[in-house]
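Input sequence (108 aa), recorded before submission:
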Amino acid sequence: MKLFTVTEAATFARLSTKTLRRAIGAADRPLRCYRVGRRIVISEDDLIGWLERHRAAVVLSDDIISGAISSPARELLGRLRRGPWHAGTEEPDTRQYGLDAAPKIRFA
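Predicted structure, token format:
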């Protein structure tokens, strides 16, 4: 097991020592550490696990998506987002897009 001091862990994670010290004392999702006398050491596995738990989800905004796809694809995507339960809409006619049938999408 590889152990880091707070300074070494901060360098490894490219964070400040202040951020890691706050993380150690955090009430929710704290960074696990070992205290040996006054010295604080953090295992590499605990540090990587803590970083994984704080990974941000990737969110694509409609503006980014709209600029990256063709207008027929954008229209189909809009219909699929609304779904067949949307008032006044029929199932999308996908033949014009070269698809035999509308994709079946299940929402949890």
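Checked by second reader. The radius of gyration is 24 Å.
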